[in-house]
Amino acid sequence: PKDTVDVVVVGSGGAGFSASVSAHDHGAKVILIEKEPVIGGNAKLAAGGMNAAWTDQQKAKGIEDSLELMTKDTMKGGRNINDPALVDVLVSHSKGSVDWMTAMGADLSDVGRMGGASVNRTHRPTGGAGVGAHVVQVLYDNAVKRDIDMRMNTRGIEILKDDSGNVKGLLVKGMYKGYYWIKADAVILATGGFAKNNERVSKLDPKLKGFVSTNQPGATGDGIDVAGNAGAAMVDLQYIQAHPTLSVKGGVMVTEAVRGNGAILVNREGKRFVNEITTRDKAAAAILQQTGKSAYLIFDDSVRKSLKKIDKYIGLGVAPTADTLVKLGKLENIDGKALTETVARYNTFVTSGKDADFERPNLPRAINEGNYYAIEVTPGVHHTMGGVMIDSKAEVMNAKKQIIPGLYGAGEVTGGVHGANRLGGNAISDIITFGRLAGEQAAAYSKKK
Ligand code: ADP
């Protein structure tokens, strides 16, 4: 071997970084490898926030939440096929993970709403700026501070095992160094999902053939093959999520928080057609049934001011604006008269606190201030729920549910946490919590060896 460490982490998204920092802090010598030239994976693109229950940030805002409620929402969103033991880890560690990130310098003090949540529990930076870039930056800074050996342009190829089947290292391929192996007691797979690989996606779910994706280029799923070749079992691979709101004009993903903060969805006929903050699978399916397989997010300046991220969309030119809804309709070929009626009716629901048409559970503000905006949206492949089978210690298992000693998995590469459909805000929570856990477990395992 070229190098010898205690733990090798594969992938530099939120899960990989959390695992690296946590393994280091539990006494392990760590190498982190990333096949792409840049760090951050898809985690860096996450726009929504980090779900957590019973946090100080919620309490400061008078939000009443509980572990039971977050568990119920997560299971319901996942159509109850989530692995309950993994959901228990996700939920019970969520506050601890917010505190862990905060202690490392993150700002997660703003708390908003995402689809499928019964209360506000999506933690994000003040003013609602993008959570992913922030979280990855904080983790990266902490990895640098700890002098963790990070290698870009380095792909994990094969898990190496000794004669008794214990992990003994990882074969990698560096862009400049070529093939070499790293000797290690434990390998943590944090290689993310495969939403960018339409060939793999459409084989598992033919309905998604030809769909665009919100993901970064590295989200191809080769980590799934690396795990499979090492004997890992897979769960729920057929469950692939389309994010309902990808901007048609710019291909940029529009965060669910825009709806959470008060935007409505209308079709070209100017009518609402769904509870805007239902789960992603339902919202996406509803949009695909509308004329042209797209819909419009409609909001005003009060929604815009409540969420910093919206200024980015306006800056990208994907959110045309006008001072009346009729003019807005003209710009985008939406029935302006119907749109005006729809918004007026929706505003009466905001006043009465009850959505008589679609039972939307949160009605944060009326749409009647300043200028109006419309973002045309359509679904794009966003998250792959399935993946490597792990237990509640992030240990990877084979088809007989026996652990593969020394192999750990965390984040989107794993399956079971989100069941058939992931709730917005649960990915960041997943990658931080399971990354931390995998790092801790791998470090302890290495120490014992
Ligand atoms: P998560 O959200 O679970 O942390 P991300 O998608 O954010 O997942 O990050 C996964 C990272 O792993 C990406 O940056 C991706 O390029 C990287 N990656 C995927 N496969 C490999 C591999 N075989 N070797 C090294 N890095 C990989």
UniProtKB/TrEMBL annotation:
* Any one Gene Ontology molecular-function term assigned to this protein's record: FMN binding
Main subcellular location: periplasm
Cofactor(s) needed, names only, are: FAD; heme c
What does the UniProt cofactor note say? Binds 1 FAD per subunit.
Q: Which residues of the full protein are shown?
A: 148 to 596 of 596
Q: Report the residue ranges that make up the FAD-dependent oxidoreductase 2 FAD-binding domain in this protein.
A: 6-427
Q: What catalytic activity is recorded?
A: 2 Fe(III)-[cytochrome c] + succinate = fumarate + 2 Fe(II)-[cytochrome c] + 2 H(+)
Q: Which keywords does the record carry?
A: Electron transport, FAD, Flavoprotein, Heme, Iron, Metal-binding, Oxidoreductase, Periplasm, Signal, Transport
> Does the UniProt entry include the keyword Cell membrane?
no
- For this UniProt entry, what's an example GO CC term? periplasmic space
| Keyword Amino-acid biosynthesis attached | no
**Source organism's superkingdom?**
Bacteria
Report the locations given in the UniProt record.
Periplasm
The subunit field of the Swiss-Prot or TrEMBL record says:
Monomer.
Q: What is its EC number?
A: 1.3.2.4
Q: What is the protein named?
A: Fumarate reductase
Q: State the similarity comment.
A: In the C-terminal section; belongs to the FAD-dependent oxidoreductase 2 family. FRD/SDH subfamily.
The species this protein belongs to is Shewanella sediminis (strain HAW-EB3)
